[in-house]
Design goal:
149 residues, alpha+beta, 5-stranded antiparallel beta sheet
């Protein structure tokens, strides 16, 4: 009986843990949707609002906006994207632990494709992640890349 209880507890715990990963990924995908909607409309203030304030410690908001505008100028208008990888990583630091959801997309623009990788963190714990890292690499020229955050 005791073994059955442990097995049942383990099964329930595993199922609940899996739900957390799925929920975190879904929440991050929702933010990515908002990001790409802003890119498509050219609403740069809306795009930048999806980033965590710490992102701009290394790259200022005006610098990152200029990078995104230049990328769109070279690649053309946003067309579509496909999620190619997703992962969840835990980082330990002085201030405690932080869980990040990493999403990688193959993104199609009118003049080419790029790979974009986002790191998301939910600092509120309320299912509202923000972008803390963002990098992209040209599918045609792997040396052509940019990283922010």
């Amino acid at each position: 009986m005791r073994r059955l209880s442990y097995a049942l507890f383990g099964l329930i715990f595993s199922a609940l843990a899996g739900c957390g990963v799925t929920t975190a990924q879904r929440n991050a995908e929702d933010v990515a949707d908002l990001h790409f909607q802003g890119i498509q409309k050219g609403n740069w203030n809306y795009v930048l609002a999806q980033y965590d304030p710490t992102f701009f410690f290394a790259t200022s908001a005006p610098q990152w906006k200029a990078t995104l505008v230049e990328m769109q100028h070279r690649l053309g208008n946003y067309q579509s994207r496909a999620l190619t990888a997703a992962a969840r990583q835990t980082y330990a630091g002085v201030a405690g632990t932080e869980e990040r959801t990493m999403l990688t997309y193959k993104v199609r623009y009118t003049n080419g494709e790029i790979q974009e990788t986002f790191g998301f963190v939910d600092r509120t714990g309320e299912g509202s992640p923000q972008i803390v890292t963002h990098s992209f690499r040209s599918a045609n020229n792997p040396r052509e890349q940019a990283t922010g955050g």
